[in-house]
Specification:
With 584 residues, this protein is α+β, with helices and mostly antiparallel strands. It has helices at residues 9-15, 24-29, 37-45, 57-62, 84-96, 117-129, 155-170, 177-182, 186-191, 290-304, 315-322, 324-335, 383-394, 416-425, 436-440, 458-474, 537-551, 558-564, 567-573, and strands at 48-52, 69-75, 102-104, 110-115, 146-147, 226-229, 243-250, 253-261, 280-285, 355-358, 364-368, 374-375, 377-378, 381-382, 397-400, 406-411, 442-443, 484-487, 501-507, 510-515, 526-533. A five-stranded antiparallel beta sheet has the order 1-2-4-3-12. Bound molecules: siroheme (SRM) and iron/sulfur cluster.
Length: 584
């Protein structure tokens, strides 16, 4: 808390921001292409990142020109679910402003890249008109709440979706700053919420009112993430969240929730005091009590999280510093009641949502893999056009997955063949034509939009995955289900440490390879090769694949195999390729 410690600069910016206003409104009206640092920090709470085009930065500098200032806006979509109309609004915005594409995020949101300052207001207003929002998509608050995406019409999936939306709304900051700064319509700014009954439903729009008992004036020490899954389907990597909620059902009856705390993946290379961590099970919460317990966890982090060192500010460090008994007792104190120990639950599984599946009400949903979540038209692949046409013609409601893919729901059986034909016409590869590795590979945006990227990720995903699939094929392993995640730096945005293979940008052109996670997301992988030049990444993995093909135990997965072998054994396989790759 304030007082005894020396708080980081970010804390002062928040406290002095007058409820996230800063000088944003006046800055928006001036001629500058960007915002001053303190406003740029506040912009994050409004769902906006200030950056620049990194591809042109050096050339521009050499010519004495300023950086090409660009912004990213992130739409918060709890559970990833939109109506067809909402999707079409986002699609149209991609043509009006920014980079003519939509980027599905690893937390089921949508990002617009390449915006210039004057486009921010119109973009946010159009999003608001379609009853969506970017508030709290970023910043030191509860971010987009993720949920198992399957649009099945049963009590389990309905509950997860409704709860994701509910928690997201309840934990959205109440400040009117967002409305004041961005909404063109004064009435909207005054009321914050549209006055008419929202159809389609509002997605993550906050309740009106300024007083914010949850966040106070300094908000949280750091970002805070919540995910909702079931043991039967952990396709969202629920344990990577600060607060992981595992809903337990007997048939269609909710029996309660196991909650786990302290997940988070960011690390800094060579700083062992920073590390990825999966959330630890802490308690069982009866039905009807989840919001109150979640609030207690958030309040604990607000009051005890580290406000001096942002690298040590996530809940995961509080959990490790204080220990689980203290954490549980403190949650109980804020909640006001004792909590039961976690209930027994089955092992986690991951359901494949790609391809056609029945919804359970006579209609169907179709999962379409999207490479790195980038919905665009590029060469022969015109994914954006195909999706626009299908969503528009068949009123197919999209759900974004935490694996950066899209599910189109509410489809009649009689429309399936025509939809398949549309996808073929626009060059979209169906899920069945991909190998499991291609299907499950993820990559973060990295260059040129991410200011923190050390290496490429999204732009090398397809060629690198193709090389790795070729390597697997040479060993007869192309049908192995292996999760692969690529990021351009160690922050972990595509959850590389929760995959069986994590390829993490180390220095320009070089990657660290992490191996040995499990597919259902319950075990972190570990650093095996520290600096592998890009050109050697697939070859290095191939050595491990070769050994796996001959020395695996019966039924052993690739992740389990790498987990079983010591680092020395894995490194020895590729010693001639990776002389400089050994780690201490
Ligand atoms: Fe992330 C920062 C992109 C999910 C951990 N993340 C960033 C920024 C905003 C860079 C920045 O701060 O300047 C990236 C913008 C890049 C760009 O050009 O768009 C960025 N993160 C993303 C997305 C778009 C990656 C993607 O491939 O989809 C994801 C947006 C999710 C959303 O809709 O909210 C995204 N980021 C994640 C995840 C995965 C998750 O939550 O499931 C993680 C790891 C889990 C975690 O939070 O620990 C993640 N992002 C980070 C971190 C490290 C946080 C830490 O505690 O160390 C940073 C850097 C930071 O916060 O200082 C970061
Ligand atoms: Fe940027 Fe690093 Fe996140 Fe990739 S992992 S988007 S490079 S912060």
């Amino acid at each position: 808390m304030a007082g005894a410690i020396k708080e980081s600069k970010a804390e002062a910016v928040k406290r002095e921001s007058r409820g996230l206003r800063g000088t944003l409104k006046t800055a928006l009206a001036n001629e500058d292409s960007g915002f001053v640092d303190s406003d740029a920090q506040l912009l994050k709470f409004h769902g906006i990142y200030q950056g620049y085009d990194r591809d042109t930065a050096t050339a521009r500098k050499n010519q004495g020109m300023a950086k090409d200032r660009r912004f990213m806006a992130r739409v918060k979509i709890p559970g990833g679910r939109l109506t067809a109309e909402q999707y079409l609004t986002l699609d149209a915005l991609a043509d009006q402003y920014g980079a003519r594409n939509l980027r599905i995020t690893t937390r089921q949101g949508i990002q617009f890249h390449g915006l210039v300052k004057s486009e921010l207001g119109p973009t946010l207003n159009a999003i608001h008109q379609a009853l969506m929002t970017t508030i709290a998509a970023c910043g030191d608050v509860v971010r987009n709440v993720t949920a198992t995406p399957a649009p099945r019409k049963d009590a389990v999936h309905r509950h997860l979706q409704e709860m994701a939306r509910h928690l997201s709304q309840r934990f959205t900051p109440r400040s009117r700053a967002y409305a004041e700064v961005w909404y063109a319509d004064e009435e909207a700014a005054a009321t914050e919420l549209p006055t008419r009954a929202p159809t389609p439903p509002a997605v993550g729009v906050p309740p009106a009112g300024e007083d914010d008992p949850l966040y106070g004036d300094a908000y949280l020490p750091r970002k805070f993430k919540i995910g909702l899954a079931t043991p039967e389907d952990n396709s969202i990597d629920v344990l990577a969240n600060d607060l992981a909620v595992i809903a337990l059902f007997e048939g269609e009856r909710l029996t309660g929730y196991n909650i786990a705390v302290g997940g988070g993946l960011g690390l800094t290379h060579n700083k062992p005091q920073t590390y990825p961590r999966l959330a630890s099970l802490v308690a069982f919460v009866p039905p009807g009590e989840l919001e109150a317990v979640a609030r207690a966890v958030i309040l604990m982090q607000r009051d005890f999280g580290d406000r001096a060192d942002r690298r040590h500010a996530r809940l995961k460090y509080l959990v490790d510093d204080r220990g689980l008994p203290w954490i549980k007792a403190t949650i109980e104190r804020y909640y006001g009641q004792a909590l039961r120990d976690p209930a027994p639950m089955p092992p986690f599984e991951v359901v494949d949502h790609m391809g056609w599946h029945p919804q359970g009400d006579g209609r169907w949903y179709l999962g379409i893999p999207v490479s790195s979540g980038r919905i665009e038209d590029s060469g022969a692949l015109r994914l954006r056009t195909a999706l626009r046409r299908i969503v528009g013609e068949y009123c197919a409601a999209p759900v974004f997955t935490a694996t950066q893919d899209i599910i189109l729901s509410e489809i009649r059986a009689t429309d399936r063949a025509a939809i398949d034909a549309t996808l073929r016409e626009f060059g979209v590869t169906p899920a069945e034509a991909l190998t499991p590795l291609e299907r499950y590979a993820m990559a973060c945006p990295a260059l040129p939009t991410c200011g923190l990227a050390l290496t490429e990720a999204e732009r090398i995903r397809n060629p690198l995955v193709a090389e790795i699939v070729a390597a697997l094929t040479r060993h007869g392993l192309e049908q192995e289900r292996i999760s692969l995640r690529i990021t351009g730096c160690p922050n972990g945005c595509a959850r590389p440490y929760a995959g069986e293979i994590g390829i993490v940008g180390r220095t320009p052109g070089q990657y660290a390879l992490f191996l040995g996670g499990d597919f259902p997301g319950t075990r972190l992988n570990r650093l095996v090769f520290e600096r592998v030049p890009y050109a050697q990444v697939a070859a290095t993995l191939e050595r491990v694949f070769g050994h796996f093909a001959t020395a695996r135990l019966e039924g052993e997965t690739f992740g389990d195999f790498c987990h079983r072998l010591p680092n020395e054994a894995l490194r020895a396989l590729a010693a001639d390729l990776t002389d400089r790759a050994a780690v201490a």
